[in-house]
UniProtKB/TrEMBL annotation:
Modification after translation: An intermediate of this reaction is the autophosphorylated ppk in which a phosphate is covalently linked to a histidine residue through a N-P bond.
Keywords from the named record: ATP-binding, Kinase, Magnesium, Metal-binding, Nucleotide-binding, Phosphoprotein, Transferase
Similarity annotation: Belongs to the polyphosphate kinase 1 (PPK1) family.
Role according to the record: Catalyzes the reversible transfer of the terminal phosphate of ATP to form a long-chain polyphosphate (polyP).
Annotated protein name in UniProt: Polyphosphate kinase
Cellular component aspect of the GO annotation: polyphosphate kinase complex
Length: 684
């Protein structure tokens, strides 16, 4: 196939289109009002991570003097940096319009977000007291001048740039750090049933005289700035340091990474802006973006609800899995049959209960588990420590380089290591991204294996908002091979062979190609041929080319891709048999599900792997086959519910316009209908 720029969509631009879909949720008037604010926070948080990682990577390519066209889908690195900046400026401008609209609607709901000029007299004492009791003791104020180097600014904080001018026209500039540990929103006493909220930024503006009263000035003003730094981790080569020590230092050093984005209040004085840019050594290679009055809008994810449940999504009560009880032994239950836990529709408690039971059961001898992102308070980690205290042989492979979750993982890794748990910190050159656990239990003088394989992290917090499948099984064929993966962690040079599971980095591409080739063969012979895929992202050109080949052969391909999609669907002679949708809704779609027709005898896998080069070649991943017929039918039904979504699904096409999938059929909202499906299943 001739490769040109029309065959693939650049991954950075595709990702920005994904984040635009998040912004669409913030703009959607059918979304509860406070949830709209939280989607604005998600949009902003996503953008922060994008600049720390993807923009920073393109910037590194540019600064290395490389064009980058082959790596960047036919676009030069310098041109891409400029295009990203222009798109982000437009998105930021739109997000400000959305925020203004939401503020007006909040006012109609008697919720008033006020600034320092709108403070009522009855709130004066409360705000002053809050400033002196809560803010002032922890305040960091940095005085700036030409003779003193500007200290490194942290990208997890925002800063108020304060300019003081005296009667002689001399300026003094200072920075007030708004730490990420401060509550960004302060709820003020209500007045006649009206609610008032003020941002901590505006409390600081209101109290500027209290902060700078030792200076003599004629005028004072404050405008916000925010910096984003390169988020890559650089490791030193000191062989005397442990991996944990190196990583801990690298996480700290991330705060002094090169700037990749600078956002400022567009109303800031031009001289003050030039002063800051000069002293921060920021030039045109950085993304310099004019913004509104407030930055770090990721904080909107924690906007106070004020008890207004009518302005929030209805909370769902996680359901039990039919046939699987928290009041009975999970070992005994799954010895009879496989079960699928689908969080957040089902409770995550099954995973914790399984590990708790293993920690106490005297017949359990070993527990092996991979961990990618732990919750700040992790019952999974405490269960493993409990098991070690009870004499179980516990092995944990923990990925300390799980981006932006390193600190929690390092903390628990040290605790587990102190308890004598055998730790693996990844594999040289590879991230361990698979999610699996195998437990060996002594039964009638032999070891019997039980375990679970998941698409998601064993994390209590994300399990409430990420959709993920976890297969709980005693299938000896699958678990024997899962055990082999743990052997690989210990002996990296030994490459095992697998008959059932599919593993990266050694076999994923080959095995998936074989499954696709089977569909191509069926299509050419006039037999049923289809592929249904659900994943977060697809950017591997080799995998895309293979799907193009299948499309040309007549294989019908449906894809649900939440995030970036470098594949161009619906192009005659190339991808006309490929359809792609993306679903953005209340929960984050995180499941990876592969369904191959196999001549109407479907082969179905759940997986930890997206179809990205990193997942296929540079990570340890596991795709697990589903053999239980009931679960196979369930997964096919769940896929169809998602595919038929005509409320929250967007169509991905060559135009990348994020248009909604609309039709005259009865309304299907995948996440709501999935919950109804499980409710009906329990009732049946």
């Amino acid at each position: 196939m001739t490769k040109d720029k029309n065959i693939y969509i650049n991954r950075e631009l595709s990702w920005l289109k994904f984040n635009e879909r998040v912004l669409q949720e913030a703009a959607d008037k059918d979304v509860p009002l406070i949830e709209r604010l939280r989607f604005l926070g998600i949009f902003s948080n996503n953008l922060d991570e994008f600049f720390k990682v993807r923009y920073a990577t393109v910037k590194r390519i540019y600064e290395a003097g490389k064009g980058g066209k082959s790596e960047l889908g036919g676009i030069k690195a310098g041109d891409l940096l400029e295009e990203i900046t222009q798109i982000v400026i437009a998105q930021q401008s739109y997000s400000l319009e959305i925020l203004e609209e939401i503020d007006l609607e909040l006012g109609r709901e008697n919720i008033h977000v006020i600034n320092e000029t709108e403070i009522k007299g009855v709130h004066h004492d409360f705000i002053k007291n809050y400033f002196y009791q809560e803010l002032s003791p922890a305040l960091v104020v940095i005085m700036l001048n030409e003779d003193v180097a500007l200290p490194e600014l942290m990208d997890i904080s925002a800063y108020l740039t304060v300019k003081m001018t005296n009667l002689e026209g001399k300026d003094q500039v200072a920075l007030i750090e708004i730490s990420s540990t401060m509550d960004r929103f302060v709820v003020l006493p209500s007045i006649d049933e009206a609610n008032y909220i003020i941002m901590v930024d505006d409390i600081l503006r209101y109290c500027l005289d209290d902060i700078f009263n030792i200076f003599k000035y004629d005028s004072i003003s404050a405008h916000m700035i925010k910096i984003t730094r390169d988020g890559e981790l650089d490791f030193d080569s000191d062989l005397s340091k442990s991996f944990i020590d190196k990583l801990s230092e690298s996480v700290k050093d991330r705060q002094s990474g090169q700037p990749v984005r600078f956002v400022y209040d567009m109303n800031i004085n031009e001289d003050t802006l030039s002063f800051l840019l000069k002293h921060m050594s920021i030039d045109k290679k950085e993304s310099i973006i004019p913004g509104g009055r407030y930055h770090n809008r990721r904080d909107y994810m924690n906007f106070p609800s004020l008890g207004r449940t009518d302005l929030l999504y209805d909370k769902i009560k996680p359901l039990p899995v039919k046939g699987l009880s928290l009041e009975e032994s999970i070992f005994k239950t799954i010895a009879q049959k496989d079960y699928m836990v689908y969080t957040p529709y089902h409770t995550f408690s099954y995973i914790v209960k399984f590990l708790r039971e293993a920690a106490l059961d005297p017949q359990v001898k070993t527990i092996k588990i991979t961990i990618y992102r732990l919750a700040q308070i992790s019952h999974v980690a405490s269960s493993l420590i409990n098991a070690a205290k009870n004499g179980k042989k516990v092995t944990v492979s923990i990925e300390l380089r799980a981006r932006f979750d390193e600190a929690a993982n390092i903390n628990y890794a040290e605790q587990m290591q102190d308890e004598g748990i055998k730790m693996f910190f990844g594999v040289t050159g590879l991230k361990v991204h698979c999610k699996m656990c195998v437990i060996e239990r002594e039964e009638q003088d032999k070891l019997v294996r039980y375990g679970f394989i998941s698409t998601g992290n064993f994390n209590e917090s994300t399990a409430k908002v990420y959709t993920d499948f976890t297969l709980m099984t005693a299938n000896s064929k699958i678990l024997k091979e899962i055990n082999k993966v743990f052997d690989f962690f210990e002996v990296n040079y030994k490459i095992n062979r697998y008959k059932h599971i599919i593993t990266s980095p050694h076999y994923t591409r080959t095995k998936l190609f074989n499954l696709i080739d089977k569909e191509i063969e069926c299509a050419q012979n006039g037999k049923p041929a289809y592929i249904k895929l659900k994943m977060n992202s697809i950017s591997s050109y080799k995998m895309i080319d293979k799907l193009y080949e299948a499309s040309r052969a007549g294989v019908k391909i449906q894809m649900i891709v939440r995030g970036l999609c470098c594949l161009v669907p619906g192009i005659k002679g190339m991808s006309e048999n490929i359809e792609v949708i993306s679903i953005i809704d209340k929960f984050l779609e995180h499941t990876r599900l592969y369904i191959f027709s196999n001549n109407d005898n479907p082969k179905i896998y759940i997986s930890s792997a997206d179809w990205m080069t990193r997942n296929i070649d540079n990570r340890v991943e596991v795709s697990c086959p589903i053999y239980d017929e009931d679960i196979k039918n369930e997964l096919q039904h769940l896929y169809d519910i998602c595919w038929n979504d005509n409320v929250k699904a967007r169509i991905i096409n060559e135009h990348q316009d994020n248009s909604y999938k609309r039709n005259d059929k009865p309304k299907v909202r995948a996440q709501f209908d999935t919950y109804k499906y499980y409710l009906n299943k329990l009732e049946r």
